[in-house]
């Protein structure tokens, strides 16, 4: 099998339609000539003449096997691109930015990165948590693209020394724009937001049966706090909105304050954080308490003032949902204590502490079984039980030769029952994991899905080594 490398700067010389129709891939691009790899079974003079007519340049073919063409087309010209646009993503055309956004949306991209270096610039997409380089852009065209984005985001195009933040409102989604001055120019990250949360279901996120029962029981209480922890991009907001969707009915007043608003959900009142004018999480929470809420969702607990306000809200009969940056469910309790929240208040108000991570799922069509070698695992990892083998990624047309297809969440759920509440009150946090017989750490949960063949060792290695 031949590995075909298509340079990012050559990708936009043909559309996805043309690549898949003629079963070709760009090899080299010259001023007056284009060289393509072509499926050996379709190499004919008619294709050459038609392409020369479409592209306005001389065309040269290099025949290769059908299997190599099929594999490379699935990598470089994903079929989803056909739904986004039938036009070439040519930076010289005025519709480049719109086509780029449409392509990113169709590929379920969460972020678009525009980066400039001394002699080149590139555009990368974050898909399933991984950054993938999609295009090279000439430096002159990159500067023009930056100005177009600034104009769309209502930012100052003359300011090139300071960071700027803005928003672009599209027909079907919102985009948060962050601009950062770097050594060779301005780097831009566009986050695609405004997804409809009406179809998010708690039962499909990755909770095990016992965990889901504990979570639902805590969510249905009329007051208290549910905290979800994890790093950026671990799916915390998705879990919160799946919870709000469950609680959302005509009998409840639900209010949220977020930065940014990543989902929209009909029937709830969403507030965008604006710290530059004094609208912080703490100040918004004070206003919420005068709005007769039943459920309050805070995008994040960042400081002691917000933490204490959340505790106060839960004590006065409200259900509070929020996120916090810690590595484990037990670490969340330690973090609250470090923020100055008295342990007796935590024990009275905390219903549930959850830690979560997102991991990519192996493609069922191509994953391969391999023998378990303990030397491949982190040296400090304690095996909860023995396994003979697990699966590794391979790559096929159905997963675009990544070896993975979709993602799932793993959860560490700590239910605050009477025994744990008493230990929190006594600051005996080291005993918490042993008191709850149903408690399992994130590393244990990661090992479980590895043993079930749902993911690979390389995907969960960082979870095993950190916990």
Overview of this protein structure:
The chain is α/β, with parallel strands linked by helices and 467 residues long. Helices cover 33% and strands 28% of the residues. The protein has helices at residues 8-11, 16-22, 45-55, 66-76, 80-84, 96-106, 139-152, 209-219, 236-247, 281-288, 304-315, 329-338, 343-349, 418-425, 432-435, 442-451, 457-466; strands spanning 24-29, 33-39, 58-64, 109-116, 121-127, 130-137, 164-169, 174-182, 185-193, 195-196, 224-229, 254-258, 263-264, 269-272, 295-298, 319-324, 350-362, 368-371, 389-392, 404-415. The strands form 5 sheets. It has a 7-stranded mixed beta sheet, with helices on both faces. It has a 6-stranded antiparallel beta sheet with strand order 6-5-4-9-8-7. Helix 10 runs parallel beside helix 11 (304-315). The longest helix has 14 residues, at 139-152. It is globular and about 80 Å long. 36% of the residues are buried. Mean pLDDT is 87; it is low at 80-89.
């Amino acid at each position: 099998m031949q590995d075909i490398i298509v340079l990012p700067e050559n990708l936009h010389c043909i559309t996805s339609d043309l690549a898949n129709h003629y079963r070709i891939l760009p090899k080299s691009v010259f001023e007056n000539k284009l060289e393509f790899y072509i499926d050996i079974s379709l190499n004919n003079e008619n294709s050459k003449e038609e392409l020369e007519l479409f592209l306005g340049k001389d065309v040269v073919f290099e025949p290769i096997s059908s299997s190599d063409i099929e594999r490379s087309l699935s990598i470089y010209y994903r079929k989803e691109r056909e739904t986004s646009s039938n036009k070439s993503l040519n930076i010289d055309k005025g519709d480049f930015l719109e086509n780029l956004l449409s392509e990113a949306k169709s590929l379920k991209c969460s972020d678009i990165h525009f980066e400039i270096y001394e002699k080149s610039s590139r555009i990368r997409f974050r898909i399933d948590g991984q950054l993938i380089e999609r295009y090279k852009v000439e430096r002159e065209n990159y500067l023009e693209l930056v100005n177009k984005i600034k104009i769309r985001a209502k930012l100052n195009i003359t300011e090139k020394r300071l960071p700027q933040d803005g928003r672009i409102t599209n027909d079907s989604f919102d985009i948060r724009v962050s601009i950062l001055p770097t050594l060779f120019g301005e780097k831009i990250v566009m986050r695609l937001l405004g997804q409809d949360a009406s179809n998010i279901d708690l039962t499909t996120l990755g909770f095990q049966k016992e965990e889901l029962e504990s979570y639902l029981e805590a969510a249905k209480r009329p007051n208290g706090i549910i905290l979800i922890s994890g790093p950026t991009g671990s799916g915390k907001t998705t879990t919160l909105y799946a919870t709000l969707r469950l609680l959302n009915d005509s009998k409840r007043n639900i209010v949220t304050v977020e930065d940014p608003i990543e989902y929209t959900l009909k029937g709830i009142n969403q507030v965008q954080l604006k710290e530059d004018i004094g609208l912080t999480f703490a100040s918004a929470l004070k206003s919420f308490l005068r709005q007769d809420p039943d459920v309050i969702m805070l995008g994040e607990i960042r400081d002691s003032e917000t933490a204490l306000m959340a505790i106060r809200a839960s004590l006065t009969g409200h259900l509070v949902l929020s996120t916090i940056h810690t590595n484990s469910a037990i670490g969340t309790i330690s973090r609250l204590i470090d923020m100055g929240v008295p342990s007796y208040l935590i024990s009275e108000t905390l219903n549930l502490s959850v830690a979560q991570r997102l991991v990519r799922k192996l493609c069922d069509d191509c994953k391969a079984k391999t023998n378990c070698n303990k030397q491949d695992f982190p040296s400090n990892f304690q095996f909860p039980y023995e396994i003979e083998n697990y699966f590794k990624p391979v790559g096929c047309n159905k997963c675009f030769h990544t070896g993975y297809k979709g993602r799932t969440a793993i959860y560490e759920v700590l239910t605050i029952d009477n025994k744990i509440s008493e230990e929190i009150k006594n600051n005996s946090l080291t005993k918490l994991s042993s008191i709850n017989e149903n408690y399992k750490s994130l590393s244990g949960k990661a090992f479980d899905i590895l043993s079930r063949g749902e993911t690979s060792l390389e995907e969960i290695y960082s979870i095993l080594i950190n916990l």
